[in-house]
Amino acid sequence: MADNSGPKVPGCKVVLVGESAVGKTCIISRFISGAFDSNVSSTNGASYASKNVQYDKLGKNLLLDVWDTAGQEKYRALTKFFYKDAKVAILVYDITRYDTFKSIKEFWYEQVKENGPKNIVIGIAGNKCDLYEKEEVNENEAREFAASIGAIFALTSAQNNSGINELFRDVGNKYLDPNFQQQLQIENEEKNPEGKNTNIVLDKKEEKKPEKKKKSFC
Ligand code: GDP
Ligand code: MG
After folding, report:
1. What is the pTM of this model?
2. Is the residue at 206 inside a domain?
């Protein structure tokens, strides 16, 4: 039986942000369904998809709700609602376009800090690493930036299916890390002296239901 002693969070919300056409939708599609569609033009309709993932830490499953934009990033018009209650934010840039890296540093990271919860886990994905011959973003520079903000870094290719599972594994492990959870708990208690814990993520019911929920991209 699931422990019903506290409010349940239905899953771990993960948001992907970054400039248009860096490959956010394709990364999500790869992660959720294992498919890559090179004919994706743009994303219509806000959507999220869920995947139940077995994590090394605690040997438990975590239901990831991965949120995709509806193309509003083109107008830099993502609302606060998009970031609300997100546990993980993945900043995606395209390794062949320096401007997309610059904008995660100067804009998307700031957006996450401004609109997301204080203690959000941040990941950075240098996507399209299959196109390394056209690389404009030096990997070391990107790694240094990631280290400077305490983010997890990965080079990914939605086309070749490389680095994506590792990235989701690493951010999930960080989120599940008992030290990190303890930190969240302390912050919650400070914010919420009534003792309501909003960081319980594991629900036995969800563990038995690993199905994808909704998918409308790629
Ligand atoms: P979004 O606007 O950030 O959601 O980007 P999309 O997922 O729609 O992808 C934009 C374009 O980049 C599409 O034409 C994809 O086929 C292409 N693309 C996405 N990921 C990769 C990748 O890893 N490698 C290559 N070569 N192309 C990719
Ligand atoms: Mg998209």
Report:
1. 0.82
2. no
